[in-house]
Each structure stands twice: as structure tokens, then as C-alpha cells.
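Obj.: predict assembly geometry.
Materials: sequence records (below).
Method: joint structure prediction, all chains together.
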Amino acid sequence: MALTLTAEERDVLAAIQDNLPLVREPYAAVATQLGLGEDRVIEIVSLLLAQHKIKRIGAIPNHYALGITANGMSVWDIPDAIATELGRRLGERDEITHCYKRPRHPGWPYNIFGMVHGRSREAVVASVEQIARDLDIARYPHDVLFSTRLLKKRGTRVRAPD
Amino acid sequence: MSRAEQGEVEIDATDRLLLNNLQGGFPLTHRPFADVAATLGLDEDDVIGRLRRMVDNGTLSRFGTVLNAPALGGERTLAAMHVPAARFEEVAAYVNGLDAVSHNYERAHHLNMWFVISSEDEADIRSTLDAIARDTGLSVLDMPTLEEYFVDIKFKF
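Observations (raw C-alpha cells):
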């Protein structure tokens, strides 16, 4: 990811990517650690947010710990001509946390993927069926693949500075 | 498993207020926790203490940034495989051991293993896919993102 970050930006991201210091003046704490000014740290973080290199800053809940344990990947076989429009509309739904168009494969007819989280599998299925009705896409083949085990997970990270 | 992994953490109404209001938009100011506290009618040190506790007990995975891999110049793809049940653990251990694999899920489907490969360059993604197919003897379906639709992740608690 060296292509699009300056050395200074990489230093700041590496310092805050896991946890922002939970102290009264977190940006000043990062600045001290890096030998920069607090204003410069805030300026860099603002820029990275504006460029959407940082999606957001805040609390990243462990939804499993909070009872949101069902994770369903809803997949849809949507005609190509309307796939982009429907992908956008699916992405706007509160129930959908990630939404993508992906290629079909032999034996795999689905091109639109929308992740749905819920407190139970039944709740996830009910959400998917509600979405199908609301967007009038129930007639297109669709399925929900529930995760039965999280085998590995790590967030997107930048490499620690050399 | 920790209590957090078993879904046993308990949060009170103030924790819930913080969770529902702090999943983004954290202020870029000299005293951001004081600003959050003022907005929510709380005390600065109480906000900091609660966030520390929620990170420590696993209610929060982290308090920090969510990065956008494509915008950072990273490449990634989603891949799926059908792994015979008898070989599942062996193949999972192998796939998880690859540095480029950032996420891996078992799913209830004929295609029962779904994983994300992330790297700084496209060639590394391709060689990882090829290595998995070669080393496991299984076919790997490559499902890169063709389009991503904007979503604003906000869990409600």
C-alpha cells in the first residue's frame, strides 16, 4: 500500500490503526510519539478521511459479543442490465453491511452479494425476504450462506514503517 | 473462549448510547472525548473509562480507524472452494497460514470455505490463488469485486 501514502501518512496510520489512545488528548499523544505537531496529525487524519483512505474513526463493536451472532451472505442472480442499480439499492438498506457485484462461475449463478447480520438465522432470513419483497426481486434466484465458523479475521492494515 | 466470544458481555444504557453514536464521526479536535461527552450529556473521563473497559472486555474489537483497502492501493479478492469434510481442518490451517489471507469463513453451502486475499499488488493475489489450487488440489473460484456499493456500517444495539 506504499503507492498512495506518504511516509508521514503511513506513520500516522500505523500509530492509530489498531487503537486511538484512550486519553483526553489522543491526537497530541500520537503527535508526541511521532515527533509531529498535534495540528499536523489532525490535518493528515482529516485528509485521509476526505480521500476515503480512512472509512471512519470510532468504536468498532465486536458484534458477536453483543449477541449479533448470525452472519448471512445473501447472494442474488440479478440480470446484468439492472445489476448495478439493484446493487446500489441493496447497499442503501440498513440491514446490508457490505454489498458487491462479483463474477458468476459455472455452477455459481449469483452476481450480487449483500452481507446481512442479525441476532439469529431466522432474523437474517426474514430480513432477506423483506428486502426481496421491498425491492421486487423475490423472483430472481437467491440464497443465504450462513457462516458456521470464523476461521481467520484481521482488519486492513498498513505495514509498520520501516 | 472468552466471555466476549460467547456473547456474554453486559452493557448498560450509557454504554449503549456510546456504541450507537460512536461508530464513526469521531471528532478531529484537541479534546474529542470532551466533545463527544458534551454532545451526549456525559462526562469526558467517564466516556474514556467506558471505552477502555469495552475494549478490555471485548465489547469493542477496537477503538480506532477502519481503513479502505482499495483506496490505499491494496488489491483484494474473495475466493471460494468446496473442501471435502475429511480435509476441511487441514485445508483451513493451510489457508489461514498464508499471510495474504485476511479473512476466512466456513459457510453452510457446497462451497464451504470463503476467504479474502489482500495484498499490495495484483500479481501476489494471482500467485496466492495459484498456490492454493496447486497445494490443495482443489479448484478455487476467484470472485473479485467488480463493483462496490456504498454502505455505512452501523450496528444498532
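Conclusions so far: The two ends of chain A are 13 Å apart (CA to CA).
To do: check interface contacts against the pulldown list.
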